[in-house]
Amino acid sequence: MNNTNLCCHPGAQHVSLLVLLCLFHLMGLFLNGFSLWVFTCRMSKWSAGTVLQFNLAVSDAIASPATPLLAVYLASESQWKFGSFACQLNIALLCAHFYGSVFFLMLISVHRYIAVVRFNRSSLMKRKDFVKKLCCGVWCFLLVLGLSFGFLLPVTTDDHKLCLSIHQKNRTEAYIAINFMLFILGFIVPLIVSLICYSCLATSVSRINVSSSQGQSIKMKSLKMIGICLIIFGLCFLPLNVVRTVLVVIKKYYPKKCELLLRLETAYYASYILGGINCCLDPFIYFFGSHNFKKTFRKSLRIIRVQQDRENRTESETVSYSVNKNVVYTVTS
């Protein structure tokens, strides 16, 4: 069985995967960069929910340095050209991005449940200082996790210089162990917690009196948040974890099925791209989950629009002045 692990080699990926990979992550970088600017430069008062949303935006932005490296790697037919340290850093960044997003989405669901359903009871999740410490704990855990995976999965240089590839020789057992730990602790547990919180939240808001404008606003905002979070879990994180699990199992028990492995590898990269869509969807959580962010966001857009109109008006007046000056000069001559 160990000898048969040598039979398969990575295949070239279609250029459409590279285009979609760069497109979605570029959109996510723009949206989350703007969101981080709103959080840090435009919002003066932060609540516990704002702290969680800010950390979610940071975890999304972390994927940006890793995306160009992965795009070049795929374009080079899985030939890693950046050295061992860059590979290990890339693994750490991807781990912090995907599972940081999952953990902070879970904490946002818990906070939303407590804020709406148990609004009249005291809770640590309502205290900003406690939430800050909780976020620091999550980042420490992600740091240890990323560094550990980077240490366990260095670049291999047997036939290709491979980084984070199922075709790396003598890494199958490590991929099996890491995958199932991430699948259970990094996806199943947060998903179950989020589903429980949002189920209770949906049950609670369904009983809200919608005859008042405030009750209708709370109900609609909560339902939109529930819908967006469930879409993120179902569209972005479920395919990634399921396809990766199937891939490592096939590699472990059917290593000679190279054609199947190559198809699953392509499916994995496609699910990775779907995972990147969460960077584009998370800003909707900030928009629907925080009235302060929503108000500041709209105010920031108005300020940017006014500045652009002012610049366009100034440019137009400058051009008009230059034209009139030339006309006067011509008539005088």
Automatic annotation (TrEMBL):
InterPro entries: GPCR_Rhodpsn, GPCR_Rhodpsn_7TM. Belongs to the G-protein coupled receptor 1 family. Keywords: Cell membrane, G-protein coupled receptor, Membrane, Receptor, Transducer, Transmembrane, Transmembrane helix. It is found in: Cell membrane. The keyword Membrane applies. Gene3D superfamilies: Rhodopsin 7-helix transmembrane proteins. It is a multi-pass membrane protein. Pfam families: 7tm_1. GO terms for molecular function: G protein-coupled receptor activity. This is G-protein coupled receptors family 1 profile domain-containing protein. Residues 31-286 form the G-protein coupled receptors family 1 profile domain. It comes from the Eukaryota. The chain crosses the membrane at residues 15-39, 51-71, 91-114, 134-155, 175-201, 222-247, 267-289.
